Amino acid sequence: MLVDSFGRVATDLRVSLTDRCNLRCTYCMPPEGLDWLPKPDLLTAEEIIRLVRLGVERLGITEVRFTGGEPLLRRELPEIVAAAAALRPRPQISLTTNGIGLARLAGVLAEAGLDRVNVSLDTLDREVFVRLAHRDRLRDVLDGLAAADEAGLTPVKVNAVLMRGINESEAVPLLRHCLDRGYELRFIEQMPLDAQHGWRRENMVTADEIIGLLKDSFDLTEDDPAARGSAPAELFLVDGGPARVGVIGSVTRPFCGTCDRVRLTADGQIRNCLFAREESDLRTAMRSGASDDDLAARWIAAVARKKAGHGIDDPGFLQPARPMSAIGG
Ligand code: SAM
């Protein structure tokens, strides 16, 4: 098992399939994009499948979430999902995506064994979408969401990041949109993970503010906290339920004490936290002929070093060198 020195057990593996993205969300990367990882540095589909198999069959991973960058840009995605779905014990398999291309791929992915999706949607206004993501693709995202629902990739979850002065006025319309369609919305506090290092605490729309904005229009009651487990979202019943909305207060309400996540970057590094400044290189080991036993031992040792918390509030906090797109969100 993947246990750290505080007794937390990592069972949820986030696998980044690429650092590339077809949007340029301002909280993530600059409009001109980034220097993407060179192709030879990326894990091949076979290497990804090998590490996922190791995680599931030998190290107690029960949930696999594919992410990026934009995971739908990875052509072998259906084959990677199918390989994960063939593992025993079968893990829960989900995908975090911006939804562009999902209208075409949702059925294929469901057939390959994908269980559900999280789709990012920060605004319902086309102009705001262009201002925020620097691409005119709102229609594709909405079509992708509908296709995911149609294909049974449910519950369809929606991730939204609010930015002061840009889309904070959309908290209520976004929730209405999701409630009307049976999607589960989660607001995520903006974290200091943008490549431009432009994050400022005072510009972050906090969990308290988000809840306040929603309470002006909805009756929110805290859902049973026991049901939250290690999930990052605090859940609220909307207007008595059963519909719910989540708020992920990564910065102001950290949940590191119950964290069960471990990350594999697109270039084969194990990371214990989005904010980690250390990584463990499984790619070089794998390409130098490491056995499964050796890779498992390296992975176990990496997780054992997991820190108690992300430390954003520590005076010495330094933003990680890699942005969110390169870590895998
Ligand atoms: N491209 C996919 C997508 O858009 O969902 C997957 C990768 S993206 C990095 C994963 C999630 O991270 C998205 O919901 C995105 O909104 C969120 N995200 C990116 N940068 C963030 C930041 N600085 N703070 C909070 N959430 C962020």
TrEMBL record:
GO terms for molecular function: GTP 3',8'-cyclase activity. Belongs to the radical SAM superfamily. MoaA family. The gene is moaA. Residues 5-223 form the Radical SAM core domain. Its cofactor is [4Fe-4S] cluster. Pathway: Cofactor biosynthesis; molybdopterin biosynthesis. [4Fe-4S] cluster 2 binds at C256, C259, C273. Gene3D superfamilies: Aldolase class I (3.20.20.70). It catalyses: GTP + AH2 + S-adenosyl-L-methionine = (8S)-3',8-cyclo-7,8-dihydroguanosine 5'-triphosphate + 5'-deoxyadenosine + L-methionine + A + H(+). This is GTP 3',8-cyclase. Keywords: 4Fe-4S, GTP-binding, Iron, Iron-sulfur, Lyase, Metal-binding, Molybdenum cofactor biosynthesis, Nucleotide-binding, S-adenosyl-L-methionine. NCBIfam families: moaA.
